[in-house]
Design a protein that fits this description.
Blueprint: H1 2-22, E1 32-40, E2 48-53, E3 61-64, E4 70-71, E5 76-77, E6 80-86, E7 88-100, E8 105-113, E9 120-122, E10 126-132, E11 134-135
Parallel strand pairs: 1-10
Antiparallel strand pairs: 1-6, 2-5, 2-7, 3-4, 3-7, 7-8, 7-9, 8-11
């Protein structure tokens, strides 16, 4: 009986060591970046309440230059949106409809990172981009 107890305890400890050793520690090398996008529109004095991006347009994209993968741009609430992207180099461009705090509704565009020459590099675990919108006529 005593031998069985020692054997059982040994097996339990052995199994626990396998479980604990099998757990991978965080190496600090996350392949994704959580990107906070902040939008402003200097030509309108009121603050931005909401921007809905038309992701169906060819000119609206977040595009990874290495993989060519495209991501939808989320809706901006109170001037901010968050997206999870694989770390890399991106082109960002979009058209959308903005609602301002004074009730105005306007079509807007961001084209600051719309080509490989003006692309943005996202390599940190958390990134913040400040995007300046232009009002379309």
């Amino acid at each position: 009986m005593n031998m069985l107890t020692h054997k059982t305890i040994r097996n339990i400890l052995l199994m626990l060591s396998f479980v604990l050793c099998g757990c991978e520690k965080d190496s600090g090398q996350n392949v994704f970046s959580i990107v906070t996008l902040n939008v402003t529109c200097p030509s309108v004095s009121a603050g931005i309440e909401r921007v809905e991006v038309d992701n169906s347009l060819d000119g609206s994209f977040i595009r990874d230059l290495n993989t060519r993968q495209e991501y939808d741009i989320p809706t901006f609430q109170v001037g901010t949106a968050t997206v999870k992207l694989r770390k890399g180099i991106y082109m960002i461009s979009f058209d959308g409809k903005a609602v301002f705090s004074d009730g105005q509704r306007k079509k807007v565009r961001f084209a600051g990172y719309n080509s490989p020459m003006t692309s943005v590099t996202l390599l940190n675990d958390k990134e913040t981009l400040n995007l300046e919108l232009t009002v379309l006529k």
